């Protein structure tokens, strides 16, 4: 099991209402091995996003994980403290939503959002965070990163916003592994 990075066992995440229970995820199990890719597919509303939110333990109210276990790199996510989860999110596990514009703050420039994530999670000075931001945006093929960092999400296409979200996830994982 040492090559398994993510192990989800009998995951059950339900949305509880005073009148009903919606079983968004009911008995899902899977493993993700190092160096492989896993795709979760299904029709709209089948629980794909809820699985991702559950792995990060960020299921919105009135939802909650009601059963099962989630392991990341051998550690049980479902038993982690809030502080342990905060360190895990973004640095080790990230989620890029289908609508990336919703994940970006509309009133902050792109560069500031990427840099703020870097300085918060990696405790790096602003100058180093700016350099890393420009490097990763350039690496992902975004044109003119020096101008892009000054723009707001509404200036970018959906695909460009998605690449910015990928940049955030990429730079955090690269920065984490460099330490």
Could you characterize what this model shows?
- The protein is α+β, with helices and mostly antiparallel strands and 179 residues long.
- It folds into 2 domains: 4-88, 3-Layer(aba) Sandwich (Rossmann fold), CATH 3.40.50; 100-178, no CATH class.
- The chain has helices at residues 48-55, 82-88, 110-122, 126-139, 145-148, 158-178; strands at residues 4-16, 21-33, 63-72, 75-76.
- The protein has a 4-stranded antiparallel beta sheet with strand order 2-1-3-4, with helices on one face.
- Strand 3 (63-72) and strand 4 form a beta hairpin.
- The longest helix is centred in the C-terminal third of the chain and has 21 residues, at 158-178.
- It is globular.
How are the secondary structure elements laid out?
Layout: E1 4-16, E2 21-33, H1 48-55, E3 63-72, E4 75-76, H2 82-88, H3 110-122, H4 126-139, H5 145-148, H6 158-178
Antiparallel strand pairs: 1-2, 1-3, 3-4
Helix pairs in contact: 3-4, 3-6, 4-6
**Assembly type:** single chain
Write down the Rg. Answer: 18 Å
Shape: globular
In CATH, the topology of the largest domain is named Rossmann fold
CATH class of the largest domain: Alpha Beta
Outline the biggest β-sheet.
Answer: 4 strands, antiparallel
Q: Order of strands side by side in the largest beta sheet?
A: 2-1-3-4
Q: Tell me roughly what share of residues is in helical segments.
A: 25-40%
* Structural class by sheet pairing and helices: alpha+beta
Order of helices and strands: EEHEEHHHHH
Total of DSSP H or I helical runs spanning 4+ residues: 6
Fourth-tier CATH superfamily name of the largest domain: P-loop containing nucleotide triphosphate hydrolases
Total number of domains: 2
The number of strands is 4
Report the portion of residues in β strands. Answer: 15-25%
Mean residue pLDDT:
88
Low-confidence residue ranges: none
């Amino acid at each position: 099991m040492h090559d398994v990075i993510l192990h989800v066992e009998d995951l059950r995440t339900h949305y509880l209402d005073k009148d009903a229970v919606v079983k968004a995820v009911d008995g899902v199990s899977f493993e993700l091995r190092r160096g492989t890719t896993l795709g979760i597919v299904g029709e709209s509303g089948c629980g794909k996003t809820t699985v991702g939110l559950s792995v990060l333990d960020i299921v919105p109210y009135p939802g909650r994980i009601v059963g099962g276990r989630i392991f990341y790199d051998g550690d049980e996510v479902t038993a982690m403290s809030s502080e342990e989860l905060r360190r895990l999110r973004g640095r080790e596990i990230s989620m890029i939503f289908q609508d990336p514009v919703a994940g970006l703050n509309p009133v902050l420039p792109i560069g500031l959002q990427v840099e703020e994530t870097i300085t918060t999670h990696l405790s790096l000075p602003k100058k180093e965070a700016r350099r890393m931001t420009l490097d990763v945006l350039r690496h992902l093929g975004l044109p003119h990163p020096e101008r892009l960092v000054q723009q707001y999400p509404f200036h970018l296409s959906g695909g460009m916003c998605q690449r910015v979200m990928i940049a955030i996830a990429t730079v955090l994982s690269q920065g984490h592994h460099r330490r």
